[in-house]
Amino acid sequence: MKRSVKFSKVNRKNALPGRSVRASRTEMIEVALPEDANPLGNILGGRVMHLIDIAGAIATHRHCHRQAVTASVDHLDFLNPIRVGELIVLESQVNRAFTTSIEVGVEVFSENFITGERKHTTTAFLTFVAIDQSGNPSLVPPLIPKTHEERRRYREAGERRKARIAARAKRTN
Ligand SMILES: CC(C)(COP(=O)(O)OP(=O)(O)OC[C@H]1O[C@@H](n2cnc3c(N)ncnc32)[C@H](O)[C@@H]1OP(=O)(O)O)[C@@H](O)C(=O)NCCC(=O)NCCS
Description:
Thiol Ester Dehydrase, Chain A, alpha+beta
């Protein structure tokens, strides 16, 4: 059966109630430890990516209330290092829900708890796909953006999705 047909039927029968952005919003804080650092005392990019995946997954689960897998992570730039002893602050929320996938935004900051100074490390956009017990994609609740900022993120997530789909089609052709 064509995928769009399958989901449009399910949609009509079992439309899920919409959820607010607030329901998924998450703040995760870790201490930057020496075992996660390079010899210069800067936290490894791979460690930050691991934390981004977890912060994104928590926001996803809060939104969907079901199992989900990471389908993709968009391009990442590390703007400022995180030093050993600083706090790693990750703020995540669902930007938009599609049919079985959602886009989550994760902003990462370093925070010096002595001076209180915060620096932006990176912003990541991840796509998670909700799955059923057989591992097949399953419907996600719609997102209801309320504030101006939430509507902006919702709109931009739609643009990024178009770009991802086009890039994927290019890679697979
Ligand atoms: C992600 C996964 C479930 C998609 O399965 P699939 O059979 O290709 O699913 P479909 O083609 O029907 O697409 C399902 C949804 O995923 C989205 N999707 C699939 N691959 C994607 C990708 N690479 N990037 C962004 N979205 C993707 C589709 O756009 C679709 O979204 P929609 O329903 O909201 O329109 C499957 O590829 C998978 O299980 N991957 C491994 C995930 C994993 O284990 N991650 C942890 C790291 S190993």
